[in-house]
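Q: Got a minute? One more chain.
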Amino acid sequence: MQNTKLDLNISHGSCGRGVIGALAFSVLGIMDARKNLKFPYVFFLAIAAVLAFGSHRAVAQEEEGGAVFAMTNAASSNQINAYIRRLDGSLEFSAAVATGGNGTGGTVDPLHSQGSLELSADHRLLFAVNAGSGTLSSFAVNGVNLSLLDTEPTGGSLPTSVTQVGGLVYVLNAGGDGSVTGFRLSGNGHLLPIPNSTHYLSGSTTSPRDVVLSPNGQFLIVVENATNKIDVFHVFPNGTLSNPVANDSAGGGPFAAVFAPNGALIVGNTSNTISSYQLDWNRSLHIVSNALATNGQATCWDVIARHGHSVYTSNAGSSTISGFDIERNGALTPIGNAVVGQNPSGSTNIDIAASYDGHYLYTLNGATGTIGIFAVQDDGGLVNLGQQDGLPASAGINGIAAY
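A: Always. Here it is, folded:
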């Protein structure tokens, strides 16, 4: 950050010390210029206290790198567990915050979806589905602290996935034949239902698993696991949706969709493969990488990391993570033999998230009630740093987000 008036360059880690140091230097300069003035002793104590506070605050900033959020999906009272993310990737539990709704409970991965917990790109808002009560919640994010802002009905049953770009939010209702409903974000983070925005999918018995907006907010993607279709809706200026174009999936059982920064749509498939596409303005998808093997079992979830250079899949059946480099044209190349990370056997890692700096990956391990922590290496490989415990094991946890 640059202060043009003073022409100072202040880094995030040294912000407190930089400002306080400049203040101390200025005061000492004044003191030197006015040697004949006698400053009260209390003045020096005040300066010492300010310097000590600035140093303590700077140390605290250096220790905290961000936050990780995990959802319990509890049937009685859904909650978000918030964790401080240290700069070394380790986690420290901070608080559990109620969503104002109910989850479904269950055992391992009862929602069968990606995106049940979604963090805004600027890390200021968090969105959580309440599948048991058919509602969507929004939170203000201040570091690791969450404040519930709003909880609204989703216009359908069993909401399992949510996506947000700018002032638009869409939720996927997986109940029945499946549908999507849109909201606009007010300035205070409240959810304002968009009239006539609810739209059904390509047909009946679709088993939808994920919903994602394109980076420009003009297209909405829904993956249908049972039909092997990827629906593409056009988002009109008023927030309503066109009829979908149902594209054939390159891999069997499409489950999780993410957009890379270069515009490529990347989809993890339950056939233990991963595919990439280019999206056309007519809502058609053109296959770039057909269906590459992840060499893992029960591949479902995926996340972009390394500043858009790589994508990683979470393979629940083998408790592994697979990695692929993303080329400029959207083509995928396996990193090594594709499997780059290993959780303890039986972890059943489901959802996966990445820190905003791309240095760490976090997996939500449904069977053991832990969060797997991995350091991302320069070559895209992963180093297992251990697990954070404290979540209920085999009790329905779903959804993880990080920055």
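A: Residues 2-62 form one domain.
Q: Perfect, thanks.
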